[in-house]
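Task: sequence in, structure out. Protein: GNAT family N-acetyltransferase.
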Amino acid sequence: MTTPRRTIGPVSMTGRLVDLEPLTVDHAPGLRTAVADGRQWELWYANVPTPEGMAAEIDRRLDLQEAGMMVPYATRRVFDGALIGMTTFLNVDHTVPRLEIGATWNAASVSGTGTNAESKLLMMTQAFDVWGVAAVEFRTDWMNGPSRAAIERLGAKLDGVLRQQAQRDGYVRDTAVYSVVAAEWAAVRKGLEFRIRRHVG
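Result:
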């Protein structure tokens, strides 16, 4: 059985395109600006906070962190220091160990710039190489085609679809479940590094 090499908890992660900072209430102003870029809370299949709801969403994630259920982050772009989104480790199972990377959103204008790929590279490196997890999971609404495509570009494989798995605002979604296991990590890392190099001068 695989066991964690270190306690799974908040840690800063630094890349060439993005820095992942443990989430705090001080991130609220920058994240309100970021989420207004693209108005993604209007997408019916996505669960993205509004600018007005950002403080409450940060509090919610920090409460879940306090309960040991989530490790949330703010994503900061390196070249100008702007906050561009949020992401998190969640559903941590210490017995396997395994975890999920999710609850992610990014400003619309950073799509295709390599920032999301590097965020996932940083997080999976932390999960596999430092914490020694056996698998990293990704979940999204089956109707969220852009999210499913992004997860598949990471190199994750579809484990299955949980029909009628989660409800929000009267809508019950089918959840697509993907994962990368430890044996696949070396190949997935090479693919992500290749993608990121195209965006680094």
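Strands lie at 13-14, 18-22, 70-77, 83-93, 98-106, 135-141, 157-168, 171-181.
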